[in-house]
């Protein structure tokens, strides 16, 4: 089993879910007393959030690239970034390491294509929904991305930062998200990407009239598959 280096803490609520799912996946694959071989670098989200708020993506990229290199130096053989938003600086991480880096949008895109869909709605932070990095990554797979309107984007973002990253799960917020999803479907979305790792704490496939693609779970599944793949001979 390869050791997975995980850049987490953004937020720790979703990193906890990433860790749980990874260990459950490894145990399901290998049985016995097996668990995932992980190196977790849990950053202080307050520092990252401040960089996000002031748009200082260069500083955020420098910080994460340095931590990625540290994980490789500590023995990680595969790198993941357990947050969607910070994939805005994914190229900085890839340049900082020589080990494989698994982009969180790629497993989601593969699942969307396997479902035969080409147009999906995207829920995430305002940064993920409004900046082009995520939609452009999906476009590489032939997938068209729809985002909520201005008011709905504000609602989705607020719930993430004011509630979900603090572990607050409210039925009222779930209803708000369902309404946003329904409006995306009315615009032509054939499925919905839960493009923020915390959203899976609030929304499941039972809450949507179309297929839901949970990026955390799909990321974990792909990472574990790579970690357990036989070494090249």
- The Cα radius of gyration reads 17 Å
Broad shape: globular
Percentage of residues in DSSP E strands: 5-15%
- Tell me the total number of β-strands: 8
Order of helices and strands: EHEHHEHEHEHHEHHEEH
Question: How far is the first residue's CA from the last residue's CA?
Answer: 15 Å
Low-confidence stretches: none
What does this structure look like?
With 233 residues, the chain is of the alpha/beta class. It contains 10 helices and 8 strands. The strands form 2 sheets. It has a 4-stranded parallel sheet with strand order 2-1-3-4, with helices on both faces. A 4-stranded parallel sheet has the order 6-5-7-8, with helices on both faces.
Based on the model shown, name its key terms:
4-stranded parallel β-sheet, alpha/beta, 233 residues
Spell out the blueprint of helices and strands:
Layout: E1 4-8, H1 12-30, E2 38-42, H2 45-53, H3 57-73, E3 78-81, H4 90-96, E4 101-102, H5 105-114, E5 119-123, H6 126-130, H7 133-139, E6 144-146, H8 150-162, H9 171-186, E7 191-194, E8 212-214, H10 215-228
Parallel strand pairs: 1-2, 1-3, 3-4, 5-6, 5-7, 7-8
